[in-house]
Design brief:
Helices cover about 60% and strands about 10% of the residues. By secondary structure, the protein is of the alpha/beta class. It folds into 2 domains: about 325 residues, ABC transporter type 1, transmembrane domain (ABC transporter transmembrane region fold); about 240 residues, P-loop containing nucleotide triphosphate hydrolases (Rossmann fold, 3-Layer(aba) Sandwich), CATH 3.40.50. A hairpin with a 2-residue loop joins β4 and β5.
Length: about 600
């Protein structure tokens, strides 16, 4: 069995493995940044201009003090004050324009990249095989789509640009301080090196705690998503308190991990700011002594003070930004791990074309051996062989766990068998494009899925390009037209989340209408009438028989009364075929089918 990597639709293909390390993990976002190089360049230009404009302020302040305040001639002092205040206003105006432009560009980038990342992750998850969802909870995926992408948006749209701006300002202020006070600042720089090294080492612990914090948040989200989708069951078992306690425990665990992260980050910030402040105050003290000794002017000292303040504030901001970047790095690693997941089920590089068909399609399963990934020791199908001719109706019956639904999942290629071959019209399904294969198959599942949309759109889901008239015709065929017309807004009525406004039988008829509208040559009916009352079952059964004409149909049924007219009935038990024949022949053989029929029909005759 050949495995191929699934395709996604992100801005660019992510790396197979996310980069390890700390903030370096953010390099995995490069494919999503690359299409927006022009905006990134503009944002960088505005960012640099804003930082440089800020660095000009101390120079203007020095000129104001030395030429406008300390100047000896009063007339010159007044003129100089006006000129220098106008110059300061010009610097402030430029700073406002450049800062606003930078903010717009980087915020746009944050929103755009987050949207692209969400689309890429969502599209990728939709292409995963059911094996992926055997080990991954939907709530965890939702957490990654929301909480993790929000962290990345914060970094890309705010923290990163603020960090870069403060880095430029810190570097510029430091250069100016070194240029004006080289001897003193050489001592300060030596102290700053001693600050940076332990901060980087300790930052790794903060990153690990950030990753753990996001994982615990995902755990609580997974519990919430699972329970909210089963509220009626929870309430029927009066399990509200138990489920609330389970969520409380997960939330408290996430809170505890978050507190450890906050504590570690707070210690990191305190260390950086305290150590940096001490080093810079030492330099400022040396500058004050120089003024008192007459070696520098008052304006020079004022300039030094402002540059020290800029450097201090920039370093403090950088310590905050660094914590955000570490959190986003953990979130990025989680998302990249998800994007790096490759489905074992994918279209081959060069798929075979399927021939055009007007009627049914032929199906062949030959010596199929299959077990689910989560149950490797328990075969669901064992040496299963079955040929279905075009236009034939074949029923699969047997006790629960016999492997009936597994046949459907393999035909749809949700899984590939470990051994054996499956063919559609003589072509191996593993060599067909997944879209081509599944377009050939219509299915009515046992648990009908209703989307949060109108009745019209729910039925049209089977064929998005169908007209309203075709949707109505499919609904009539499924005996759904009458109850849909009776809804408050008819076919435009919103059916609620998971179809909560409909009964089980109504949801099933919507599902049947959807399959009829798709009009596929191979029809799979998995207990298609299980949720219907006797009267509705007869009506829908007639509609299904009409839809099954000239189509190949496989039917799974526990109600044997619905398959007595099938061309063949395949009796299954423990993944094997134990008998095949028509209803009367199987009864005459007095085997497993006869025992199942006796239990059902005798039970029905008693009126139970």
């Amino acid at each position: 069995m050949t495995t191929h990597a699934s395709t996604t639709a992100p801005a660019a293909t992510p790396p197979a493995q996310p980069p390890a390390g700390s903030a370096a993990s953010l390099r995995a976002l490069a494919p999503y940044l690359r299409p927006h190089r022009t905006r990134m360049a503009l944002a960088f230009v505005f960012l640099v201009l804003a930082a440089l404009t800020t660095l000009v302020l101390p120079l203007a302040l020095r000129a104001l003090i030395d030429q406008g305040i300390v100047a000896a001639d009063p007339g010159e002092r007044v003129m100089a004050l006006r000129e220098h205040f106008l110059a300061l206003f010009g610097v402030g105006l430029a700073l406002g324009v450049f800062s606003a432009s930078r903010y717009y560009m980087v915020t746009w980038l944050g929103e755009r990249i987050t949207a692209d990342l969400k689309r890429a992750v969502y599209a990728h998850v939709l292409r995963q095989s059911p094996a992926f969802f055997e080990t991954t909870q939907s709530g965890e995926v939702l957490s990654r789509l929301t909480a993790d992408t929000t962290l990345i948006q914060t970094v890309v749209g705010s923290s990163f640009s603020m960090g870069l701006r403060n880095a430029i300002m810190a570097a510029g202020a430091l250069l100016m301080l070194v240029a004006t006070n080289p001897y003193v600042m050489a001592q300060v720089l030596g102290g700053l090196v001693l600050v940076v090294l332990p901060a980087v080492v300790y930052g790794r612990r903060v990153r690990k705690l950030s990753r753990a914090s996001q994982d615990r948040l995902a755990d609580s989200s997974a519990i919430a998503a699972e329970v909210l989708n089963a509220v009626p069951v929870v309430q029927s078992y009066t399990a509200e308190a138990r489920e609330a306690a389970r969520f409380d425990a997960a939330t408290e665990k996430a809170f505890g991990t978050g507190v450890r992260r906050i504590r570690a980050r707070a210690a990191l910030v305190a260390f950086i700011i305290t150590a940096t402040t001490g080093a810079l105050l030492w330099g400022l003290y040396q500058g004050t002594q120089a003024v008192m000794d007459g070696r520098i002017s008052a304006g020079h000292l004022g300039q030094t003070v402002v540059y020290v303040i800029l450097l201090l504030s920039s370093v403090a901001a950088l310590s905050e930004v660094y914590g955000d970047i570490l959190r986003a790095a953990g979130a990025t690693e989680r998302l990249m791990e998800l994007l790096a997941t490759r489905s074992p089920i994918a279209s081959p590089p060069r798929p075979l074309p399927l021939p055009a068909l007007q009627g049914g399609t032929g199906v062949r399963l030959q010596n199929v051996q299959f077990h689910y990934p989560s149950r490797p020791q328990h075969p669901s199908l064992d040496g299963f062989t079955l040929d279905v001719a075009p236009g034939e109706t074949v029923a699969l019956v047997g006790p629960s766990g016999a492997g009936k639904s597994t046949v459907f999942q393999l035909l749809l290629r949700f899984y590939d068998p470990q051994h054996g071959h499956i063919a559609l019209d003589g072509l191996p399904i593993a060599q067909l494009a997944l879209e081509d294969l599944r377009q050939r198959i219509g299915i009515v599942p046992q648990d009908s899925t209703i989307f949060s949309a109108s009745a019209m759109e729910n039925i049209r889901y089977g064929r998005p390009d169908a007209s309203d008239a075709e949707v109505v015709a499919a609904a009539r065929a499924a005996h759904a037209h009458d109850f849909i017309s009776a809804l408050p807004e008819g076919y435009d009525t919103f059916l609620g989340e998971r179809g909560v406004r409909l009964s089980g039988g109504q949801r099933q008829r919507i599902s049947i209408a959807r399959a009829i509208l798709k009009n596929a040559p191979l029809l799979l009916l998995d207990e298609a009438t299980s949720a219907l009352d006797t009267e509705s079952e007869r009506a829908v059964q007639a509609a299904l028989e009409e839809a099954m004409k000239d189509r190949t149909t496989l039917v799974i049924a526990h109600r044997l009364s619905t398959v007595v007219n099938a061309d063949r009935i395949v009796v299954m038990d423990q993944g094997r075929i134990v008998d095949i024949g028509r209803h009367t022949d199987l009864l005459a053989r007095n085997g497993l089918y006869a025992r199942l029929a006796a239990m059902q029909f005798d039970h029905a005759s008693t009126g139970a």
